[in-house]
Amino acid sequence: MAGMRRPVAVIIGMMGAGKTRVGKEVAQMMQLPFADADNEIEHDAGMKIPEYFERYGEPEFRKLESDVVLDMLEDFDGIFSLGGGAPMTPSIQQGLAEYIADGGKVVYLMADPKEAMERANRGGGRPMLNGDANERWKKLYKERDPVFRRVANVQVRTHGQTPQVAARKLMEMIDQRIVHVTGFTIEPYDVCIGEGVMSQLAQVLGDEPAKVALIHTQPVQRHSDRARTLLRQSGYDVHDIVIPDAEAGKTIEVANGIWQRLGEEGFTRSDAIVGLGGGAATDLAGFVAATWMRGIRYVNCPTSLLAMVDASTGGKTGINTPQGKNLVGSFYTPAGVLADMGALASLPNDIFIEGLGEVAKSGFIMDPEILRMLEDHADELRSFDGSTFLDSDLKDVVAELIERTVTVKAYHVSADLKEAGLREFLNYGHTLGHAIEKLEHFRWRHGNAVAVGCVYAAELSHLLGYIDQDLVDYHRSLLGSLGLPTSWNNGSWDDVLALMHRDKKARGNKLRFVILGSLGHPIHLEDPPADAVEEAFRRIQR
């Protein structure tokens, strides 16, 4: 696709949906050129569309339309709006699918039918509406709506909105980043990253659920209020369920309380759950969704950096037991993940920085570009301030870091949902990290514990001759420059060793670690020499 100019977004929708009006507004806001397929066709044909229709008939028109649209998809770099019927043509559907596969955004502009019909009638010059215009419009809507939903990868409702408001909404949607998660054993779903993506909640939930349980913690009240409003506006019956914050919310007692409520309130298999909050809250909500009636629809709205890059993707759900973290759980994928960058603005500095531990880990095991970005922006990241974040250049940097980290996670998960081989590489730094969390009674945050765990794994890799001292030092300097801890000395080796034996990766009484063979290339280490395992621990105690 090199050298090909692609539209920034393609707008589709019914006649009268406001594709041209809203498209022009968006193009102006984003300082991009705007093109309307119908104008391009008239220009090529040398006559108005109604006249062309009259003279050559619809099939000929559709052929010309297809040629024009496919050319524009490969040689126009602004906002491009299509005629109402264009997405019904198979060759155009194919062209749009290739454009989406190449990272494009096809936006279905969903207007209120009454508003759209009035606008379509006012406009005149629409050969498809000859006869009883309203009846024709409704018939076309019935045929086209399901196709438009299938063809588009972004939907924007404009009911009752001015073109300016609709355009701003559309701009947020175009600016978002989408990571498509697929795999042999999973229903594909999208992780949407951007400011304002929470507004797609109803779109991801779909029309089937009547009741929605909104599971969240107290500190994210502002975001849960917004989610509740969006859900109610879309006609869902919302049941609010508040759970304790952080790891205290991930217990069988909390899960049991929610199961009781779902039972009392008549939740059926066709209802849904929305989990909103940090990693612990989304883990628990996913576990409840996976177990209620053997699995109901579930949407994930992570509000912390850690939850966005870690807990939100990969379908791991779970609760803790007194014996350890995440020992009870299931693999269950969400219908979608909405990582709304707006939520990061309310994060305290230390909770934001904790999330960088998992970001850096993804760089160490697969994507060195992540490490380069962390190095280049270490000072700004370390001094993160939520109150200025959304208006700063840092927002784009963080959005890209989230996108890259989720992509690393999606790669490992799609090949291996159930954690037999490849997926275990995501546990780099976690064997010691989980032991630290447990011995600190979860007063240490997960990302901080993982940062120390990565240094430990690097020390072990070095002791066994896989990597050189420079790469170990690099772990320490990079993590330290972000404000993450790189040492820990608050527990005895015996306690740590006992917990490592209980780690989910352990097989029988043999320890298993993920270490680095080289930067970006993790390997499994089975039953390493006991003295090296202990010596690496001594080295992170300094």
UniProtKB/TrEMBL annotation:
Pfam families: DHQ_synthase, DHQS_C, SKI. Binds 1 divalent metal cation per subunit. Can use either Co(2+) or Zn(2+). Binds 1 Mg(2+) ion per subunit. One of its GO terms (molecular function) is shikimate kinase activity. Keywords: Amino-acid biosynthesis, Aromatic amino acid biosynthesis, ATP-binding, Cobalt, Cytoplasm, Kinase, Lyase, Magnesium, Metal-binding, Multifunctional enzyme, NAD, Nucleotide-binding, Transferase, Zinc. The keyword Chloroplast does not apply. Substrate binds at D38, R62, G84, R144. Residues 355-506 form the 3-dehydroquinate synthase C-terminal domain. The keyword Manganese does not apply. Its main location: cytoplasm. GO terms for cellular component: cytoplasm. Pathway: Metabolic intermediate biosynthesis; chorismate biosynthesis; chorismate from D-erythrose 4-phosphate and phosphoenolpyruvate: step 5/7; Metabolic intermediate biosynthesis; chorismate biosynthesis; chorismate from D-erythrose 4-phosphate and phosphoenolpyruvate: step 2/7. Its cofactor is NAD(+); Zn(2+); Co(2+); Mg(2+). InterPro entries: Dehydroquinate_synthase, DHQ_synth_AroB, DHQS/DOIS_N, DHQS_C, P-loop_NTPase, Shikimate/glucono_kinase, Shikimate_kinase/TSH1. This is Multifunctional fusion protein. It comes from Bifidobacterium adolescentis (strain ATCC 15703 / DSM 20083 / NCTC 11814 / E194a). The lineage of its organism: Bacteria, Bacillati, Actinomycetota, Actinomycetes, Bifidobacteriales.
